[in-house]
Amino acid sequence: MTEKKELAANNKMKSFWTLQGVSLTVNPGEAVGLIGINGSGKRTLTEILAGRLKQTTGFTTLDAKINYASSRAGLSENLTGLENIKKQIGQADIDELKAKHLLNRIIDFCELGNWLYRPVKEYSIGMYARLSLAIAMFLEPEMLVIDNVLNVLDIPYSQQVNQKLRELKDAGVALIIADVNLVNVERFCERTLWLQFGKVQQLGPTADVMLQYEYFQDWLRNASLPEKNEYFAKKQQASQDFDIAKVYEEFKIEQFKHGFTRKDEPKMRRAFFKEKGSDPIADASKTPAKGTVQNKKQHFKKKIILAVIAFLCVVGIGSWGYLSRANKQTAVDKKETVLTSSQKRTSSLKKQSVAKDKKSSLAASESSASAKRASSSSAKAASSSAAASSKAAAASSASESSLKANTQTINVNSGDTLEGLAQKYATDVNTIKKINNISSEADLKAGSVIRVPK
């Protein structure tokens, strides 16, 4: 990869990191989604995984044959579609009989007709995606990296692609799917990685990550322009100030835990900053492969694919702005503020209660027994009312949380109505409004993403 890039601002050049300490492991047959707002580093990460880009520091340990599909990269644009297919098959080192079979299968699957004899530079983005994906799926991948391809395919063809991807997944092929359409990620992926400002914001079960990502998008839509500008400025500054030395220290500690010593530190530093190959820990745990190509394939099936980006850091250039972990920190700060305020309010109420109790005691000693009973009855009624109110609030909060947790995301198509969607997903209009915080049919716009009950 090129050296650390520069960002021009106020007639001065400033550097920033496009990826910061990303670590990921993928297993055979597993699909991992990659989401994040524009400029979060998704494409950089997919190109590193596919071997098209070299990280600035850190390691990539890849024990698999990786195929890459993109809607705008990977093909030779001056060659025709057919020439691109033949070129990729030739590079795959496949025998002649099998090569002819694969050629016919790819031609049939991409359904480009006479366009196969035209230069790729004349293709639309959808045609480019078809050809790239067809080649990647049929050239016997062990891991398939799909970079923003599924969202540009037309509906009939995408159904055909979905079926093929499921077949590959069932056969043990690992999938990395980066897509701006969250429905495509939810359809295939058990786990999802949310990239934000080049950092891993969250990695976990897809449903959990999607829910948090939607909360973040809601915050972004509702934030005022000054709030966004201030937030962008802080995050951009953080990407410029990122200290790679801290990441190296974490890496060094991890190496020591696995038996490396201080004597090995020069080698570790060279591996991390200069060589940038495989992770030394992974290399030390490997048994040298022996035997035929068939033995290697059997070995792959028995062990996990190590698509590990250990402390991966990449630098880039651009004028960009987007949100990151500070949103999470802001929420924590707000929570602490509310908690402190609540504690102060409780303390004040306790003091007032003690003072009132003293006055009530004096009044009670001077009043009749009937006044005592009336006071006691009033206190019990107030206590019961407060308890009922608390239970109702808790029940309402739990109900809302449960309602949103048992939902799925869908794309709103032209002509969709609240009543039509309610019938399609066996629910009612009010439920859809409540889940998505919308008030009328006018809020339902084609191309938007909403949630409906599962």
From TrEMBL:
Low complexity bias spans: 361-386
Residue segments, region Disordered: 333-386
Keyword terms: ATP-binding, Membrane, Nucleotide-binding, Transmembrane, Transmembrane helix
Transmembrane regions listed in the UniProt entry: 304-323
Recorded superkingdom: Bacteria
One Pfam family this sequence matches: LysM
The LysM domain, residue ranges: 408-452
Ranges of compositional bias, category Polar residues: 338-351
Cross-referenced PROSITE patterns: ABC_TRANSPORTER_2, LYSM
GO molecular function, one term: ATP binding
SMART domains the record matches: AAA, LysM
Domain ABC transporter: 2-222
InterPro entries, alphabetized: AAA+_ATPase, ABC_transporter-like_ATP-bd, Bact_Polysacc_Export_ATP-bd, LysM, LysM_dom_sf, P-loop_NTPase
UniProt cross-references to PANTHER family, sorted A to Z: TEICHOIC ACIDS EXPORT ATP-BINDING PROTEIN TAGH
Protein name listed in UniProt: Teichoic acid translocation ATP-binding protein
Taxonomic source organism: Liquorilactobacillus ghanensis DSM 18630
